[in-house]
């Protein structure tokens, strides 16, 4: 088994990262944008997808390969997770979506992600400018997929086959996949979020998932819980494990 070189031994990755920062983001040619990532974030704009590059080990011509470590932030819960993909995996997934589009009714949803310019295949794929273009291309493409997944997961939308296919590829954590929505109990307005000690307001539940209820029944502001979950996946009050998240959403608010 060949030893993989560490990232430090490969200055081309560092160079690729810095080239990527100077590149513009690819844009979709469709006009009816699904306004990625601002969908349910309640107005706060946050980068939903960021990408690092590293060396993966495994079977390849060179004995190692460049992998793209994609960190995604759930627009509903603001929880983040990281998935590592090779170029070939992203390309193959895009091809699968192209086939789904050809099959019919998902066409409209997929259109925007599929009209984004996709980074090309190269024989000499380890050139920094090739990697840089892939970083930018994947940020946009995966960002659209995440927005699409979120759209599918919002209350009132039909969770079709596409939801599962996207969840698999994006490796959406199970507690986010299983997230459900319900109207807040009338008693919620008498409670405080125990993390920030502020009372829950009507505006907090006017966006899907602005207030999150955990398996144990305790409720928190999404942003307060996000910071907490960076430390531990347990309830801040009772320390029970977070296995299920319910988004509180009052359509009338
Ligand atoms: Zn709070
Ligand atoms: Zn609890």
Automatic annotation (TrEMBL):
SUPFAM superfamilies in alphabetical order: PX domain, RING/U-box
Residues in RING-type domain copies: 193-239
GO molecular function terms noted in the UniProt entry: phosphatidylinositol binding; ubiquitin protein ligase activity; zinc ion binding
Keywords in alphabetical order: Metal-binding, Zinc, Zinc-finger
GO biological process, one term: ubiquitin-dependent protein catabolic process
PANTHER family reported for this sequence: RING FINGER AND PROTEASE ASSOCIATED DOMAIN-CONTAINING
Record protein name field: RING-type domain-containing protein
Organism listed in the record: Achlya hypogyna (Oomycete)
High-level lineage: Eukaryota, Sar, Stramenopiles, Oomycota, Saprolegniomycetes
């Amino acid at each position: 088994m060949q030893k993989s070189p560490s990232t430090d031994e490969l200055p081309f990755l560092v160079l690729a990262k810095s080239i990527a920062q100077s590149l513009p983001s690819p844009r979709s040619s469709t006009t009816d944008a699904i306004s990625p990532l601002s969908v349910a974030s309640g107005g706060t704009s946050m980068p939903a997808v960021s990408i690092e590059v590293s060396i993966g080990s495994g079977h390849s011509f060179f004995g190692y390969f460049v992998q793209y470590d994609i960190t995604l932030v759930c627009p509903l819960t603001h929880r983040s997770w990281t998935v590592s993909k090779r170029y070939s995996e992203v390309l193959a997934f895009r091809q699968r979506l192209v086939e789904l589009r050809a099959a019919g009714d998902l066409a409209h949803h997929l259109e925007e992600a599929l009209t984004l310019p996709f980074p090309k295949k190269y024989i000499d794929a380890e050139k920094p400018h090739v990697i840089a273009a892939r970083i930018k291309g994947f940020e946009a493409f995966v960002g659209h997929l995440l927005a699409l997944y979120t759209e599918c997961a919002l209350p009132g939308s039909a969770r079709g086959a596409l939801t599962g296919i996207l969840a698999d590829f994006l490796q959406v954590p199970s507690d986010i996949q299983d997230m459900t929505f319900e109207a807040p109990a009338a008693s919620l307005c008498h409670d405080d979020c125990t993390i920030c000690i502020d009372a829950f307001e009507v505006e907090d539940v006017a966006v899907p998932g602005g207030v999150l209820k955990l398996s144990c029944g305790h409720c928190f502001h999404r942003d307060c819980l996000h910071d907490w979950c960076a430390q531990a996946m347990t309830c801040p009050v009772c320390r029970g494990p977070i296995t299920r998240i319910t988004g509180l959403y009052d359509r009338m608010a």
